[in-house]
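Lecture 7 notes: from sequence to structure.

We start with a single chain of 211 residues. Read the sequence below before looking at the structure.
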Amino acid sequence: MNHVVLLGDSVFDNAAYVAGGPDVVTQLRERLPASWRASLRAVDGSVMSSMPRQLAHLPDDATHLVVSVGGNDAIALSAVLGAPSSSVSGSLLRLAELRDGFRRDYAAMLDEVTGAGLPAAFCTIYEPRYPDAASRRAAATALALIDDCIIRLLTDRGLPVIELRSVCADDADFANPIEPSVQGGGKIADAIARLLAEHEFGRGRSEIITR
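Now the structure, written as C-alpha cells:
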C-alpha cells in the first residue's frame, strides 16, 4: 500500500472554500488506484517555516510527499508592488532582493522536506485572480520571479514539479482570488495522480507536470 501525504497550505487544505464540495484530498482519493491512500497534513494559512510542524505529524506509513507552500510567503512580500520608486531599475533591484530572500527560505524548506527521506514532489505558485486587471497583471509579473526560483531549485535537485500556473489557468478554477474551487481542486488532484502514476522517483530526474 502506497500512502501519499499532502503538505503545505490552502492550495490543498481548501475545504473551507468549496461550499461543501469535495476538497483536493477527497478528489485525489477518487483518482488514485486501490493500492494508494492519501492523507492531508497541509493547513490553511501555512508558510514555509510551518513545514517542520507538518512533517512532525506524518503518518508512520507515509511513502510519498506532495508539497504546495510559498504562496502565503509571496503574499507577505507583495506590499512592494505598491511601494514608490524613482526608477524601473530600482524597482527591479528591490524585487531581486525579495526573490533572493524567498530562495533562501525555500531552499531551507526543501532541506526539511527531503530530510524526511521520502519521495517528494513540489508545486509552483499559481497566479492570483484579483478582480482588478492591473493588480492581476502586476502580481503575475512579480510572481514569475518567485516561480522561477522554485523551478530552478527543484530542477537543480532533480525533484518533480507540478506547474500550478498551467494546471489552474481558468478563472473558474478559483473559489476566490487565491483559493482553488472544486474545479481547480479537481485539476490539482488530476496532476498529482498523474505524477504518482508516471514519475520515476528513483531516477532522481526532474519532471514538470502541467495540465
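The mean pLDDT is 93. Keep this in mind for problem set 3.
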